[in-house]
């Protein structure tokens, strides 16, 4: 998705205040960190004054008495040591606060991602979402660790320096006050220019992550079809755009950060030295005062430089915050259930009533779908690709919201059941099952602590999965790598079947569940499915018509409409679309057998 290329000042303030709202639970820790910060700042301000006392009261007059100098030196060293200790604890506190905040922010983002509807993931690359959860939140952490601490410390330090300057010389202190608007102008100019480039950089980084995630997930296809060169070119193009945006920002940094501030500092130093030089013709000037004032001037510009250098981190954090909050404010949520209801699915009778549905709000992919599936019955959905079979499943599983028509379970609208009730009573087996990193046992149980190890093994035996699991090293404790890559498609499918059976659902949803299983295994699975379907409502999507010949009702879909319905024999006798599909598949099988038999 394209990002806005510039944030207004109002939007930036809003994002900053929203980020700062995450500090509320940590008020006590923040107060301690600020007290430590204040104490170290007081030490910074007091040290030059001690040197001034040494120069004017002892060094210049030649009063080098041991005891007063020992006391003065001890105070100086004591402040330095205490300051170093306080700085350590201050640094740790600010880091701890930042990590707590980012931890909570990442939990919020991750939780939000879990609640989003599938429509959001249909239009947003996975890498872009990953970038927001990782890179963007890390940029925000830098703001809490360095930017806020630096700005607060600089504020304390500048205030103290101004007080000390006014004590030393009112005229020169007023001159330094005049410099402040110039500094603010430079800071504001940098903030406006850099925000546009940082937005561009963040968007390009998001695109890089998206392209990388896509390449990794489709590596086998890339290599088989020799797409490496094209992918390298696309990745290189995005990388080049990221580089150009970065270079634009570096040029702004090089012009408006330290060089501009250093130029103003040199100008101020010339004025100060000229003032003391001219004044010395009229009356004597204390060397300690000159040292202290120049030292304060240097310390005045150092926090300004620090703030300017941190402005880049601040801008990155604000831009990253805008991207994170855009995700947190996303309204493409999963369909809402009336969670206050306590209705339970008792039988699992499903009824579709005149259901129509569109993904984009323009073209209907389902049109007036009506059918009933009762417990113990199997309703099969068949049709060419794009006919609407998977859409029916998606709506029934509440992955998408519908507006026209109704879906009923046991006579109640599907919207009236809580999400946990729906998920617990519906068992879904996909054509390409997903296995999580862990063990075989973990993937069947899915962290349902109510299932005992024996029940997990019984579920595997039920679907004939125990045969290959027992041959694995460590059997049910065998390690599963990411996505179950070391298992065959059929083995992954058997584990998915065992996972579904272990949950003991009232409604069984099969999305071409036997497509990746060999003929021998399919026979065992069909036997298991026959047992699974007893007493359960089964909705099955099938491409291979041989797998659903015993279905109680077959619905033939074409362009989102049910064009034929009946049993296998009834549809063959009708001689319509189903009959053509059956002849096409069986004809292909016969031709294949002829080739094999020579």
Automatic annotation (TrEMBL):
Residues that span the membrane, as ranges: 29-49, 69-89, 144-166, 172-190, 255-278
Keyword presence, NAD: no
Subcellular location: Cell membrane
Pfam family, one: ABC_tran
GO CC aspect terms: plasma membrane
InterPro entries: AAA+_ATPase, ABC1_TM_dom, ABC1_TM_sf, ABC_transporter-like_ATP-bd, ABC_transporter-like_CS, P-loop_NTPase, Type_1_exporter
Domain ABC transmembrane type-1, chain residue ranges per copy: 32-316
Membrane topology: Multi-pass membrane protein
Residue ranges constituting the ABC transporter domain according to the UniProt record: 350-584
Keywords, in A-Z order: ATP-binding, Membrane, Nucleotide-binding, Transmembrane, Transmembrane helix, Transport
This protein's record includes keyword Transmembrane helix: yes
GO molecular function, one term: ATP hydrolysis activity
Highest rank taxon of the organism: Bacteria
Protein name listed in UniProt: ABC transporter transmembrane domain-containing protein
């Amino acid at each position: 998705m394209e990002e806005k290329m510039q944030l207004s000042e109002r939007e930036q303030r809003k994002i900053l205040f929203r980020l700062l709202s995450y500090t509320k639970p940590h008020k006590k820790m923040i107060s301690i960190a600020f007290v430590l910060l204040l104490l170290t700042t007081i030490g910074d301000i007091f040290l030059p004054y001690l040197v001034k006392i040494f120069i004017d009261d002892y060094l210049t007059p030649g009063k080098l008495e041991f005891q007063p100098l020992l006391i003065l030196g001890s105070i100086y060293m004591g402040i330095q040591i205490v300051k170093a200790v306080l700085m350590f604890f201050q640094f740790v506190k600010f880091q701890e606060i930042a990590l707590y905040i980012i931890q909570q922010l990442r939990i919020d983002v991750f939780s939000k991602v879990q609640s989003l509807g599938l429509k959001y993931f249909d239009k947003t690359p996975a890498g872009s979402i990953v970038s927001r959860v990782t890179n963007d939140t890390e940029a925000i952490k830098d703001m809490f660790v360095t930017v806020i601490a630096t700005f607060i410390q600089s504020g304390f330090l500048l205030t103290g320096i101004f007080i000390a300057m006014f004590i030393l010389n009112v005229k020169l202190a007023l001159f330094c006050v005049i410099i402040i608007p110039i500094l603010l102008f430079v800071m504001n100019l940098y903030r406006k220019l850099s925000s546009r480039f940082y937005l561009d950089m963040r968007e390009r980084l998001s695109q890089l992550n998206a392209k990388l995630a896509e390449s990794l997930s489709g590596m086998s296809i890339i290599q088989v079809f020799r797409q490496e060169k094209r992918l390298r070119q696309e990745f290189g193009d995005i990388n080049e755009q990221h580089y150009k945006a970065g270079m634009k920002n570096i040029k702004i940094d090089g012009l408006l950060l330290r060089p501009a501030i250093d130029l103003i500092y040199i100008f101020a130093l010339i004025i100060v030295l000229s003032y003391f030089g001219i004044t010395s013709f009229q009356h004597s000037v204390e060397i300690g005062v000159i040292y202290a004032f120049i030292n304060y001037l240097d310390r005045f510009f150092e926090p300004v430089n620090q703030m300017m250098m941190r402005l880049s981190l601040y801008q990155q954090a604000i831009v990253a915050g805008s991207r994170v909050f855009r995700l947190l404010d996303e309204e493409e949520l999963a369909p809402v259930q009336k969670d206050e209801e306590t209705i339970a699915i008792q039988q699992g009778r499903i009824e579709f009533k005149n259901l129509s549905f569109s993904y984009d709000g323009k073209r209907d992919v389902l049109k007036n779908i009506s059918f009933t599936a009762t417990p113990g019955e199997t309703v099969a959905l068949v049709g060419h690709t794009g006919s609407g079979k998977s859409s029916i499943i998606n709506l029934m599983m509440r992955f998408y919201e519908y507006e026209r028509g109704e879906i009923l379970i046991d006579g109640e609208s599907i919207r009236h059941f809580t999400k946990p009730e729906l998920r617990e009573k519906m068992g879904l087996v996909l054509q390409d099952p997903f296995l999580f990193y862990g063990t075989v046992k973990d993937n069947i149980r899915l962290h349902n602590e109510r299932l005992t190890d024996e029940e997990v093994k019984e579920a595997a035996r039920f679907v004939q999965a125990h045969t290959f699991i027992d041959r694995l090293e460590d059997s049910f404790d065998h390690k599963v790598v990411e996505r179950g890559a070391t298992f065959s498609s059929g083995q992954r499918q058997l584990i998915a079947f065992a996972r579904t059976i272990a949950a003991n659902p009232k409604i069984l949803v099969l999305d071409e569940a036997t497509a990746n299983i060999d003929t021998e295994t399919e026979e065992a699975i069909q036997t298991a499915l026959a047992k699974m379907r007893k007493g359960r409502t089964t909705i099955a999507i099938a491409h291979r018509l041989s797998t659903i010949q015993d279905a109680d009702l077959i619905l033939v879909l074409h362009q989102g409409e049910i064009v034929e319905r009946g049993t296998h024999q009834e549809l063959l006798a009708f001689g319509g679309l189903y009959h053509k599909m059956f002849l096409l598949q069986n004809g292909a099988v016969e031709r294949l057998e002829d080739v094999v038999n020579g």
